[in-house]
Design a protein that fits this description.
Number of strands: 16
Shape: elongated
Structural class: alpha+beta
Low-confidence stretches: none
Distance between the termini: 52 Å
Radius of gyration: 35 Å
Helix content: 55-70%
Mean pLDDT: 88
Number of helices: 27
Largest sheet: 6 strands, mixed
């Protein structure tokens, strides 16, 4: 399926080039695709990457950007061939001059894109190794694309294109409108500043969509799988038969869902090992009070509804059954998100563990009352009764009964003992003979007291005469994290707010009113574990911790990107103000990215952030080509007003072509649940930046001149 997407992306870019450039020019550009992809796959092989979902989507992403340099080169060659001044000149000289004209800005623009992408390869944490093939592959693709544009494109243009180029067409209506509008912006101070103010307002309005939760932030979106799990925890001490009864009733609710093909019940043990079992330790679950339900859905290719929507729709019905039996259930999707214990995890610390449990119980109640917080649980057992049987040694020895004999009799009566093997000729293996008391005789304390042990002389003595039975409460488990005793409270998100960030904000509002056992305010940590246990505190973990680390590292990578681009542009243009002009399209891309997420109803995820950073390098390369042409016109003694307008008019065509290639190449990623944010950021960011930068960059350059 992914290989089909790669083929579709390649064919789509090829058709776009043929439509916009013509058959001959598009053939020259498309030479870059097979050559670059082959070398990129070779680099993946050297790095030990396999062909998987990430590397194939990285190749699809590369399709859109690796034709950028050849497009700029061939478009400038065609433009030079159409210039009247070049009529009669040798074809070789025209092509060389055209390539030299865009050579310097192409080198800088390509290095800029590589600089924008490579820092993503050094992101730590969860998303680092997961997304590393994308910056590595795209950087190699851009470098090879630049080499092809300088070596193969001119040679191919000389032999394929020749002079078979139509005469220069008159400027279109859109170009005339652009010259008219830019003339007013450049020469009219009021209109110029009004336009810049309008762009600032658009930027603030776009960012406000995140503040008002119209676009919500999440680490990773929900995937679309063919299965999910229901994890059942009955109160401690529940009999296996009761657990099975509850699981069967939950299964009957699941069976009424038309998109469910079948389900499997695992009573008293864990389901087969899977991602949830590994990450959330479900594979360790065993005992009479636990059960798993493995739910299998119709193939995702045969249904329109995603598995997350199905699980969300079933959860209230399952919760209604669980509440009747005082059971705790979790509807766990596969994968459930980042590898954490649960989406929401609160760690409670304090000087006294018993009081920590009491504090955790109150915080658990806050979780249950918070909207959109579901599957609330905690890593603590309920109080359980335990009977301790102590043998009176003197009485036992007086009756000729060894204390170890009493223990073995009890063990056989309650747990059972293998007494031998049944040799069945029709069976492949011998069958063990298991001996223990019937359930009615071993399920009560009175029944155990009546068990008799044979003593000296064959006399039978009851356990009530030999033992003292004491009733006590089982000690609760003590969990530790980094050697500090901790109590975990967990939950998931479903409903209106499905991102843990908003669940944390809602719970924090209630925690501000909360008072610790000593009357102090509970101190809340978000990024690190408390240093000491002397004070009452709580740390947020789970998906929030991974989200914080990923966006922090990506933010640092983006800061490094901006610094490196700034240094490159300063060194190239020998100006400290021109870099700000060139970097201006980066915030302009958010005018398209954030509203596009709102229109698609998509979360702004880590892949969206990657698309924004990668898109930043692409839009900056277009600005570099635009500014370089302005300076070229200024070097030809053209007035600044005419230079900025002429650059926007002439350079818009290669800008449009390169952006269109990125948009078309990213389109097939749009329908993948995980990488949808990447596609939205690339497509919407490129469209917005291409449209707005054509006006903003020339105006800013004019103001800086």
């Amino acid at each position: 399926e992914l290989l089909e997407h790669l083929a579709i992306a390649t064919i789509s870019v090829a058709l776009l080039m043929a439509l916009l450039l013509g058959i001959r020019s598009s053939l020259i550009v498309l030479v870059a695709i097979p050559v670059t992809l082959a070398y990129t796959l070779f680099i993946y092989y050297l790095h030990g990457y396999t062909l998987n979902r990430v590397t194939l989507f990285a190749l699809i992403f590369c399709i859109g950007i690796l034709v950028d340099d050849p497009i700029v080169g061939i478009e400038n060659i065609v433009r030079h061939l159409r210039l009247p001044i070049n009529k009669g000149r040798p074809l070789r000289d025209i092509i060389v001059d055209a390539v030299v004209e865009v050579g310097s800005p192409l080198i800088l623009a390509t290095v800029t894109v590589i600089v924008a992408l490579l820092p993503l390869a050094f992101v730590r944490g969860l998303m680092g190794p997961y997304m590393r093939p994308m910056p590595v592959g795209a950087s190699v693709a851009m470098f090879l694309s630049m080499v092809i544009s300088f070596v193969i494109t001119p040679w191919t243009a000389y032999h394929v294109l020749g002079r078979a180029v139509h005469a220069q067409e008159e400027e279109g209506r859109l170009d005339r409108i652009y010259r008219w509008a830019m003339g007013h912006l450049v020469r009219n101070r009021v209109q110029r500043w009004s336009f810049m103010g309008f762009m600032c307002i658009l930027f603030l309005l776009a960012c406000s969509l995140i503040y008002f939760r119209i676009v919500k932030v999440k680490m990773l979106p929900f995937d679309n799988k063919n299965e999910f799990q229901v994890i059942i925890d009955m109160p401690e001490g529940t009999a296996l038969e009761q657990t099975a009864r509850v699981a069967e009733e939950l299964g009957s609710v699941i069976s009424k869902e038309p998109l469910v093909t079948n389900y499997e019940l695992y009573i008293g043990t864990a389901s087969p090992f899977n991602f949830n079992g590994l990450v959330r330790h479900y594979y360790l679950r065993k005992g009479p009070n636990v059960a798993d339900i493995q739910v299998n859905l119709i193939s995702k290719h045969q249904r329109e509804e995603q598995s997350h929507s199905i699980a969300r729709r079933l959860r209230p019905k399952l919760d209604a059954v669980a509440r009747r039996y005082n059971a705790r259930i979790k509807v766990a999707e596969i994968p459930p998100g980042p590898p954490v214990l649960e989406t929401l995890v609160a760690e409670i610390y304090g000087p006294n563990y018993d009081q920590q449990i009491a504090v955790a119980r109150k915080i658990r109640d806050i979780f249950e009352k918070t909207p959109s917080v579901v599957d609330v649980d905690w890593y603590m057992t309920a109080p359980q009764r335990e009977y301790e049987i102590e043998v009176d040694r003197d009485k036992a020895m007086a009756d000729g009964i060894a204390p170890i004999r009493v223990m073995k009799v009890l063990q056989t009566a309650v747990h059972g003992t293998v007494a031998g093997l049944l040799h069945d000729p029709g069976a492949r293996e011998d069958v063990p003979i298991f001996v223990r008391l019937p359930l009615r005789d071993r399920s009560s304390l009175d029944g155990l007291k009546e068990i008799r042990v044979r003593g000296r002389g064959g006399n039978l003595v009851s356990l009530a005469e030999l033992c003292t039975i004491r009733r006590k409460i089982v000690d609760h488990p003590i969990y530790h994290k980094n050697l500090k005793p901790v109590v975990y409270v967990t939950g998931d998100m479903a409903g209106e707010d499905e991102s843990p960030v908003y669940g944390i904000l809602n719970i924090d509002r209630e925690l501000r009113k909360f008072r610790a056992p000593d009357g102090s305010r509970l101190k809340i940590y978000y990024t690190r574990q408390p240093f000491t246990q002397e004070h009452w505190s709580m740390k947020w973990d789970g998906e929030w911790q991974v989200t914080y680390e990923v966006f922090r590292d990506m933010g640092l990578a983006f800061a490094v990107v901006l610094v490196l681009i700034f240094v490159l542009v300063v060194g190239w243009f020998r100006s400290y103000s021109v870099p700000f002009v060139i970097l201006s399209p980066i915030p302009l891309s958010l005018i398209g990215i954030i509203p596009a997420h709102a229109l698609m109803g998509a979360f702004f995820t880590a892949t969206s952030m990657i698309g924004f950073i990668a898109g930043a390098g692409i839009v900056v390369r277009n600005s570099i080509i635009l500014v370089d042409f302005i300076e070229l016109r200024l070097a030809q003694k053209m007035p600044i007003e005419d230079a900025v307008i002429d650059a926007g008019t002439i350079r818009f065509r290669p800008m449009l072509l390169t952006s269109s290639a990125v948009v078309v190449g990213s389109f097939v990623i749009l329908f993948d649940p995980i990488f949808q944010g990447l596609a939205i950021s690339l497509m919407a960011g490129e469209i917005a930046a291409t449209i707005f930068s054509r006006m903003v960059v020339p105006v800013l350059y004019y103001l800086d001149y």
